[in-house]
Amino acid sequence: xxxxxxxxxxxxxxxxxxxxxxxxxxxxxxxxxxxxxxxxxxxxxxxxxxxxxxxxxxxxxxxxxxxxxxxxxxxxxxxxxxxxxxxxxxxxxxxxxxxxxxxxxxxxxxxxxxxxxxxxxxxxxxxxxxxxxxxxxxxxxxxxxxxxxxxxxxxxx
Length: 157
What we know:
Layout: H1 2-14, E1 19-23, H2 29-35, E2 44-49, H3 53-58, H4 64-70, H5 75-89, E3 93-99, E4 113-120, E5 123-130, H6 135-154
Parallel strand pairs: 1-2, 1-3
Antiparallel strand pairs: 3-4, 4-5
Helix pairs in contact: 1-6
């Protein structure tokens, strides 16, 4: 994954773009992975770990009634998380993760379900996936999935 992360940082640098992260299910793993790359400080502005519904409401400014209606694991919530973190940090790119790493299902949704939000300038993307494994594996898979999707979008794929 090191090469993949280097590719992401290089791509962001080449395009003169900055990035911010809003993470729930990954608990900061996306931000950690990006900042493990030397030179990432030129593109990474910051991240928010909004693990609880209250953090999503109070820090990421997601409407509480929307969370009560949809739950926290939802494609629209992922999109709003990415859009709002982008605005909070003044970044060109905002990314988000929300999902269920287990061991128990929540909100009637199964372990392994995740949504990844990516907002680049004014373009919004949301991806759904389902992963299997223990908590650590699911979180790693979600992180790698997000990084791959972001590179694909940035490179016009």
